[in-house]
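SAMPLE LOG
Freezer: B-3
Tube label: C17
Construct: single chain, 427 aa
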Amino acid sequence: MKAWKSLLLGLLLANGVVAAPVELDKVAVIVNDGVILQSDITTALKSLQANAKKQGQTLPEQSVLQEQILEKLIVDALQAQEAKRIGVRIDDERLNQTIASIAEQNQQTLAQLQASLASDGISYPEFREQIRKELALSEARNALVRRRINILPAEVDSLADALAQETNANVQYQVRHIQLRLDGQDNAALEQQAQDIITKYNQGEDFSTLAYTYSKGPKALEGGDWGWLRKEEMPTIFADQITTQGKGALIGPFRSGVGYHILLIEDVQGMETVAVTEANARHILIKPSVILSDEGAKQELNEMIRQINAGEATFGDLAAQHSQDPGSAARQGELGYQTPDLYVPEFKYVVETLPVGTISEPFKTVHGWHIVEVLDRRQVDRTDAAMKDRAYRLLFNRKFNEEVDAWLQELRAGAFIEVLGDNPDAR
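STRUCTURE (predicted):
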């Protein structure tokens, strides 16, 4: 959820302009056991065009846009099916917190946000449900991609050493990207297409419009925008190409296993030194099962809270006896000093906001039901431990960005997708 700009783009694609009622709707694409309707594509197309007009953005012709939109709708549908499969649910409390954050980032009150939505033709209930959907997709993506990531201690040590020696470790780059996939095409022809795109850019065409038109990368419908990234957070193929280039530099085309890439460095930011807040928390995890419902798990945790408050048992003893997180249960529920960013969103929010020494109400994540107690917080500067923690997070972010793209391609390759009627092929 790094940038609500991305989430709001998804909203605009789905609900930015309320489509006029149609007498007949039809199925445009079958995606496994779900469908994408023609009205979904039409509404998304009108929404994107209206938003581009509002922002003064030049877009390619409608047939190209429709193909890109259809691809996004297919990928979103597959992710939604995965979210349903693993039981992701976004409750109203989490949804309200997210919407409040969106309003705050836009420097608006909730009432002002609602008025702004209404002026764009978006009803507030539609907005809420689209945000709920985007949160569910993100939750499923995070949960399923995390399982694919393996970080070795030697990798952490090596990067921590490099970070300690670099004087520009905190330089950030605002990067845009165009990816051209081979997909059976002739290599020379694809390289020539990349050179032609660079020529168009040098002749004054807008890079984001070129990304909308040609890119097959994960940020195509965001104009190729990856936002602000440190080199350590970038996919390796980006980081390897960026050396001393400055603002406005165009890099490429360069080759990877999937095809050709072009990078644009839109801006560069200098160094920053920020203290890290670490929290030492402990938790008890209860996982629902075929014989234990969500309500049953919640009741078990509430009974544990009662026992702790009544002095009948300690948090540590109950964690050791009942927690279904084996690693922390062996330490009486303690997770040790960690930056909250390492946790899944719901757990992160509780650890960040819970007063020290207070036990949370039961809450649910993708792992199950939890209660948490924050034992202590501390500010950490550039100690060896903090540097290794930062190295781990940077490695995780880099591998996560790489694995998301691979996961989505595998998800799509293994799906049954049938484009009906005259809709363009979703390649």
